[in-house]
Design brief:
single chain; 147 residues; mainly alpha; Arc Repressor Mutant, subunit A; 0% strand
Length: 147
């Protein structure tokens, strides 16, 4: 007969798969935490042992999302994951320098050819805006600067 894994074992399994923010891990474990389980104590211990780190999570998540999204969208995702504002900003500063280049790559994968009409240009700009890119990065990508 199989026994149910304990709270600590569940936390370690989740952390072995990928980085989690403290708030995200707490939310996932909450359903399995009984009244006698000290979820906060476990999270504190994992953080103290450097197995759980919001800073590491923010950097990893920003790196993954930066392939497809701009700084605004990444910041919104990090805030939704419960990452503190200063940690999110630090993770985003790395990607801001290359935002125009990343916007151009996303634009090329989606559209391949420059817009020929104002409507096409507006559509392409709205697409990049929905991905969270800044106006300067959008203008550089769709406008064809540095090409």
């Amino acid at each position: 007969m199989r026994r149910e894994p304990g709270l600590r074992e569940r936390a370690l399994r989740l952390l072995a798969r990928r980085e989690h923010s403290r708030a995200e891990l707490a939310r996932k474990l909450q359903a399995h935490a009984g009244p006698e389980d000290e979820l906060e104590t476990l999270l504190d211990e994992l953080a103290r042992r450097k197995l759980l780190s919001d800073e590491r999570y923010a950097e990893a998540r920003a790196r993954v999302l930066s392939r497809r999204f701009g700084a605004a969208r990444i910041a919104r995702d990090l805030r939704a994951s419960g990452v503190e504002e200063h940690l999110a900003e630090r993770a985003l500063n790395v990607g801001r320098a290359t935002e125009a280049e990343r916007a151009r790559d996303v634009w090329r994968r989606k559209f391949r050819t420059p817009p020929t009409t104002r409507e096409e240009r507006a559509k392409q700009m709205r697409f990049l805006q929905s991905r969270g890119f800044s106006f300067d990065a959008i203008r550089a990508a769709v406008g064809g600067k540095d090409e």
